[in-house]
Amino acid sequence: MTHVAPLGGTAVQDHVALAEIELCGELIIAASAAEDRLSMESIDEVLRVAEERKSADRPPGRDAL
Q1: Which residues are CB-neighbours of 50 under 8 A, at least 6 positions away?
Q2: Where are the alpha helices (DSSP H) in the chain?
Q3: pLDDT at res. 56
Q4: Are 59 and 52 in contact (CB under 8 A)?
Q5: pLDDT at res. 61
């Protein structure tokens, strides 16, 4: 869904799209700095996949120890 700014107003921010753009930028930066192709592990690290998995495995309401 596209959000269009009303006349004289400000655009509605799509937080999911902004997060995806930020991650894409981080991947571009990592790829530019790498001497060779990024490994799947490197891509996961840039995208913080392991952090997401840990927080998904954590029971609700419990902080990391």
Answers
A1: 44
A2: 15-33, 40-46, 49-57
A3: 78
A4: no
A5: 64
3-state secondary structure of 8: coil
Average pLDDT over residues 5-17: 69
Reported as a single tens digit per residue, the pLDDT across 12-55 is 678 888 999 999 999 999 999 999 999 999 999 999 888 777 77
d(CA 19, CA 31): 18
Measure the CA angle with vertex 42, ends 38 and 45; round to 5°. Answer: 150
Take residue 29 and report the two structure tokens written for it.
Answer: 């930066």
Distance separating alpha carbons of residues 12 and 20, to the nearest angstrom: 16
Q: Which two tokens stand for residue 1?
A: 């869904």
Distances (CA, A) of 17 to 20, 25, 30, 31, 38: 5, 12, 20, 21, 24
